[in-house]
Structures are given as structure tokens and as C-alpha cells.
Automatic annotation (TrEMBL):
Organism placement in taxonomy: Eukaryota, Sar, Alveolata, Ciliophora, Intramacronucleata
Signal peptide: none
Protein name, as recorded: EIPR1-like beta-propeller domain-containing protein
Domain named EIPR1-like beta-propeller: residues: 19-264
Keyword Zinc part of the UniProt annotation: no
Length: 330
């Protein structure tokens, strides 16, 4: 086996976990993990993967007053969506990381129905999406603006990184596309069961991938929603996570409820120019987890490192096989 594909692993005791998020720390592989326990103290762990040593070290351990649903990083700031076990309500806090393992909490507030915090890079604006609305928050002016407000209930929400006015939300098994400059919503059936993840292609405009409870993953061009431009139909389990590689978008990782991860090369629908028509293929399947994978995140340090978190609290780092890396670079 290629030495560089050997997995590294870290455990957070008997803590359950449901999310992992990458953090931009120069060229370092840094990830934040949040625990999810109703009857225990919860923490956020910030960890670094040392690629040459193939090991994971802990940088921060931060207490949090609830079960962590999601962590979104914007430089040194972590926006944390969590559930207060006493009030049984959703809250949002902002934690700023400092040197030497220190941190400070900038705010901690009640935000019922919050599902995501969208943080465009190099932009003082963040977006708070709930199951009914999307609010624009200017960090410099400390001002709010309600840009989408609906009576319908939504599950997931993501912003097109190429078009700041374009948002895609899920409503059970439907996708809903809306430009904030218009009132019209393009709603279409994307899966036969619940949509579990949405991820935009970072390099190709209008392209995104969805993963569903129906054991399907699909790539869409949201300008032409009559059909998916690619469908992964040979899958046997629900697709809990579906993520484009942030550097080379022909690499896509899918995580399943049986604890496996599949890495694909899908050059046919990527931004990579094709000199010859190439077939898409499975690069590798990873099977180190023993239970469902609730979090999947590519490193922002380099293109080749992938972090995953299982519900039982094990974070595993895998890497793209060297042979595949050379195919892409050469």
C-alpha cells in the first residue's frame, strides 16, 4: 500500500460527534470537530494533521454549552451552531482563536431554526440561513438585512460561491434555487427521498452536487434542472456527505451511513479541459470507520488531505493516493 495513503486517527473519548470543518491556517491541515451529547459536557476540538509525521495533534479544546450541530470557519473565527439541552433551542456563538491555545467568545445568542452560516472569503458579509429565512449580516457595520423570507420550511442552504445573489435550499427531496434580486423560485424534484447534503463546485460556475437518502449522488447544472448531468447510481447506502475537492474539482468524496467513503474522479463534469473523452471512475474506497460518517471535509492547506468524523467520535485523516495525484498534476 502507498505509504502516503495510510490513515491517521484521533478519538475524543466516548463523545459522539456530528461535524468536522476545515480552517484556513496558511498551508496547514487544521480541522475543528464538535461533540454532540445531551447529558455530557460538550467541546470543540481544533486539531492539526502533520502530513510528514502522519499524526494528528490537538491545538485547542474549547467548552461549549450544548450539542454542536455545525462549525463554520472564517479565518480565526468559528461560527458554531449548537443546541442548548436545557432550553432545547438552537443557538449561535462566535469563537475567536488566539495564540497559544487561547480563545474568546465574541457573542452567544439564541437563533431558533438556524441551519447554516455562510462565510464568503475576503468579504465582511456573512449569511445566516434558517428554516424560513436568509439574513445578511455586515460584520463591519454590525447591521442585519433580511434578504429572503418565506413561509415554507427549508432544510439545507448553500450560496453559489461564484454568484453572491444565488442561493440553493433543500425542501425534503426538492431543490429550490433563488436569486435574491428576484422573487421567483425554481423548485424541482432532485431526489426521491430526503436531500442530505449540497456542495457547490468551487471552480465551475452553476455546478453543484447533492447526496440523498435514496442512495444517490447527483451533479447538477442549476441553469438546466430537467435532469442531473451526472448520477452515481451504483451506490448501496444513503449518501450523508458529498464534497468537491477545493483545488481539483474532478475529485469528489462521498460518505455513507455504513461508515465508508468513496473517492471518485469525475473529469467529465469538471472544470478540467478534456483532450480526449475520459471515463469517470472510482479512485478508492476508505473503510476505517465503524459507524455512520456525519462529517466530511477537504483540507484548505493542500488538495490531498480529507478528514472525516464518525458518530462515535473518531476523526480519521485519509489522503489521495499518490498515483491519482500524479495523474492530476502531470
Amino acid at each position: 500500500m502507498d505509504q502516503q495513503t495510510q490513515p491517521a486517527q484521533i478519538s475524543f473519548g466516548e463523545q459522539n460527534c456530528r461535524c468536522v470543518s476545515n480552517i484556513v491556517f496558511n498551508k496547514r491541515h487544521v480541522f475543528a470537530v464538535g461533540t454532540w451529547n445531551a447529558k455530557k459536557n460538550n467541546e470543540i476540538y481544533v486539531n492539526e494533521y502533520l502530513e510528514l509525521e502522519q499524526k494528528i495533534v490537538q491545538l485547542y479544546k474549547i467548552p461549549i454549552n450544548g450539542m454542536v450541530e455545525k462549525i463554520i470557519a472564517k479565518k480565526e473565527q468559528l461560527y458554531v451552531i449548537y443546541i442548548d439541552p436545557q432550553q432545547r433551542k438552537t443557538k449561535l456563538c462566535c469563537i475567536e482563536l488566539a495564540d497559544n491555545g487561547r480563545h474568546q467568545v465574541n457573542f452567544d445568542l439564541l437563533y431558533e431554526g438556524l441551519t447554516n452560516v455562510i462565510c464568503p472569503e475576503d468579504d465582511p458579509i456573512i449569511y445566516l440561513s434558517s428554516n424560513k429565512s436568509i439574513i445578511q449580516f455586515d460584520l463591519n457595520k454590525q447591521s442585519f438585512d433580511n434578504i429572503i423570507d418565506d413561509n415554507d420550511l427549508y432544510n439545507l442552504c448553500e450560496q453559489d460561491p461564484h454568484h453572491k445573489n444565488l442561493f440553493v435550499r433543500s425542501q425534503n427531496n426538492y431543490l429550490c434555487i433563488q436569486d435574491t434580486r428576484e422573487k421567483k423560485v425554481n423548485k424541482f424534484k432532485a431526489h426521491s427521498l430526503q436531500i442530505l447534503d449540497i456542495d457547490f463546485n468551487p471552480n465551475k460556475q452553476y455546478y453543484l452536487i447533492t447526496g440523498g437518502e435514496d442512495c444517490l449522488a447527483k451533479v447538477w447544472d442549476i441553469r438546466k434542472t430537467q435532469y442531473a448531468i451526472k448520477s452515481f447510481e451504483d451506490l448501496q447506502n444513503s449518501v450523508l456527505q458529498a464534497k468537491f475537492n477545493k483545488f481539483h474539482d474532478q475529485l469528489v468524496s462521498l460518505a455513507f451511513d455504513d461508515g465508508t467513503i468513496s473517492l471518485y474522479n469525475i473529469t467529465s463534469v469538471s472544470s478540467v479541459p478534456q483532450l480526449n473523452k475520459e471515463e469517470d471512475y472510482l479512485v478508492k474506497q476508505y473503510d476505517e470507520h465503524e459507524d455512520s460518517i456525519y462529517g466530511l471535509s477537504w483540507s484548505r492547506g493542500t488538495a490531498w488531505v480529507l478528514a472525516s468524523i464518525g458518530y462515535s467520535g473518531h476523526m480519521i485523516i485519509n489522503t489521495v493516493p499518490t498515483t491519482e495525484k500524479y495523474k492530476i498534476l502531470l
